[in-house]
Amino acid sequence: MTAPRVIERTWVAPAKKERKRIMQMVRLIYVSRMTEECDILAIQQILDVARKKNQALGITGVLCYDPTFFLQCLEGSRTAVNELYADIQQDGRHRDVVLLEYCDAEQRLFADWSMAFLKTQDASREVLEKYTGGRKFDPYCLTSGQARDLLVELVATAHDRLSKQRADLRD
């Protein structure tokens, strides 16, 4: 019986370009109910903090506000989005947090926004009816595709107002 051969291998570090970590970008859409401690002042604080934090973390997205619900899309690296979503789930201003969509994303839908802010009351009746079938707005009833398409359409139809929002943020 012959002894097994030992082959010596030397590990060679990959070239710098190969070591560069590829960011896995994801899109996450969730809905939640606002708690009583979430008033308009709290919403403004959420936006102020989110816009700064999201910009630093490379997260983009949109927050749609209804007096009862939040519907939000977050886009960015898997790690950053997962950590932010975990924080949201623990935030006392949200309850009944439900994940509607979580997927890999080749490109951002809201690349221009660290956090765009929309109110359902500012949306056209036609747009809301398209996604609610004429019923009262309830984002828990939306499929992931409907939620994503609704947010895209709301941002598109509110373009002028959102552009002013972005300009105000720069000042």
Name some characteristics of this structure.
171 residues; 6 helices; 5 strands
Describe this protein's structure.
- With 171 residues, this protein is of the alpha+beta class.
- Helix content is 40%, strand content 23%.
- It is built from six helices and five strands.
- A five-stranded mixed beta sheet has the order 4-1-3-2-5, with helices on both faces.
- Strand 2 and strand 3 form a beta hairpin.
- It starts with 15 loop residues before the first helix and ends with a helix.
- The N terminus is likely disordered.
Distance, first to last CA: 81 Å
The gyration radius over C-alpha positions equals 21 Å
Low-confidence stretches: 3-20
Q: Which term fits the overall shape? A: globular
How many distinct beta strands? 5
Sketch the major β-sheet.
5 strands, mixed
Query: Biggest sheet, strands in spatial order?
Result: 4-1-3-2-5
Number of helices: 6
Helix content: 40-55%
Q: What is the subunit arrangement here? A: single chain
In short:
The protein has 171 residues and is an alpha+beta fold. The protein has helices spanning 16-19, 40-57, 78-90, 125-132, 144-157, 159-170, and strands at 25-34, 60-65, 69-77, 94-104, 116-119.
Helix and strand topology:
Blueprint: H1 16-19, E1 25-34, H2 40-57, E2 60-65, E3 69-77, H3 78-90, E4 94-104, E5 116-119, H4 125-132, H5 144-157, H6 159-170
Parallel strand pairs: 2-5
Antiparallel strand pairs: 1-3, 1-4, 2-3
